[in-house]
Amino acid sequence: MAKVGQTAAPEEAPQHDPGAIDRAYRFHRARRVARERRHRERRWASFRFWFVFLLVLAAAVFLAARTLGEIERIFGL
Predict the structure, then answer these.
(1) Residue 60 included in any domain
(2) Which of 13, 29, 40, 42 is 20 to 30 Å apart from 4, CA to CA?
(3) What whole-number distance in Å separates Cα of residue 4 and Cα of residue 20?
(4) Could you tell me the pTM of the whole model?
């Protein structure tokens, strides 16, 4: 049974970590930089996709035109 007259010893306050603020700042700054980098890479990936797509499309149109020209020349259409 607990004794009524005694009180529990006061708990000590947790010790403050002097480097915690710096670590939190670096952590959130790294997250922000990573988010900006992902956004920039996604934008450039979209640009590269459309650029390569247009190059392939132009090459396909060029080859189709050349092929049709050769077919007309060979068969006299």
Answers:
(1) yes
(2) 13
(3) 41
(4) 0.55
